[in-house]
């Protein structure tokens, strides 16, 4: 469904910009709009200036140790998902060329 929307957006921009670089022009336009929105709307998070670095580091290490089982399971599923995506890309390129 998303591919259909992208097709309509691409078709519209190819009508406005009469060359084959229309998708790239759209990407530049969206990048400029999003950059302006980020500059205006994004509040920087400076964190807690009074926190000790060693305390934050030990808290992070304890969290990692406690969640190691879930981390390993998530890592395996991430690698399997990545492998499927790469395999689909290879199949697409083989069929394309």
Your description of this structure?
There is one protein chain. The chain has 97 residues and is mostly helical. It has 2 domains: 1-41; 65-97. It has helices spanning 2-16, 22-41, 53-66, 68-96. The radius of gyration is 22 Å and the shape is flat.
Which terms summarize this structure?
97 residues; 2 domains
Residue stretches low in confidence (pLDDT < 50, at least 5 long) are none
- Order of helix and strand elements from N to C terminus: HHHH
Termini Cα gap: 25 Å
The total of helices stands at: 4
Indicate the overall shape. Answer: flat
Question: Could you provide a short overview of the structure?
Answer:
With 97 residues, this protein is mainly alpha-helical. It is 80% helix and 0% strand.
